[in-house]
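Weekly sync, protein design subgroup
Attendees: M.S., D.O., the rotation student, P.L. (late)

Item 1: inverse folding check
M.S. brought a backbone from last month's batch and wanted to see whether the design step gives back something sensible before we order anything. D.O. pointed out we never logged the input encoding, so this time it goes straight into the notes. Structure tokens as presented (163 positions):
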């Protein structure tokens, strides 16, 4: 029994020690050293832009974190546009013109994709309206209506006739 308790305690101590060590590990990026720009300011801009762009192969990963060949091509394209003097918005607009808004991890808010942004709000309001209407209907149907004097008299007559 003591041996099993010691094993459990050792496993727990190892787990407690491993959690902080796991938190210290930096996130892995797929950017290779040969892709990086020599100017740290331009490289920081490129990394910031890359974090908001979707890998078209992986779809739920930024091009900064993806190892796909297309993601590498997009990272290089972003750096090329930055070196050419484009602003961040010009780089984004260029990529959207080539690949559509799907390339953005966070879609823009405009009239064309209003349904995308409004659907959660509409669904929440519809669910709330349904719940309120159901509660009101349930309150109205709590039980049968009380008997009228005529109905009570008819029941009393039937009961008297049974005796």
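Designed sequence read out in the meeting:
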């Amino acid at each position: 029994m003591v041996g099993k308790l010691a094993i459990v305690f050792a496993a727990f101590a190892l787990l407690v020690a491993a959690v902080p060590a796991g938190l210290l590990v930096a996130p892995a990026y797929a950017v290779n050293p040969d892709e990086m720009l020599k100017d740290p300011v331009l490289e920081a801009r490129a990394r910031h832009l890359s974090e908001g762009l979707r890998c078209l192969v992986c779809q739920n990963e930024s091009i900064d974190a993806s190892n796909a060949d297309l993601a590498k091509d997009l990272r290089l394209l972003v750096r090329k546009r930055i070196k050419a003097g484009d602003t961040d918005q010009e780089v984004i607009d260029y990529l959207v013109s080539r690949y559509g808004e799907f390339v953005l991890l966070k879609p823009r808010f405009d009239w064309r994709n209003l349904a995308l942004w409004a659907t959660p709000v509409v669904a929440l309001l519809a669910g709330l309206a349904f719940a309120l209407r159901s509660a009101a209907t349930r309150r109205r149907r709590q039980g049968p209506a009380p008997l009228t004097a005529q109905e009570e008299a008819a029941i009393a007559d039937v009961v008297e006739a049974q005796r």
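Discussion: The radius of gyration is 33 Å. The domain at 30-103 is CATH 1.10.8.640 (Helicase, Ruva Protein; domain 3).
Action: P.L. to compare against the previous round before Friday.
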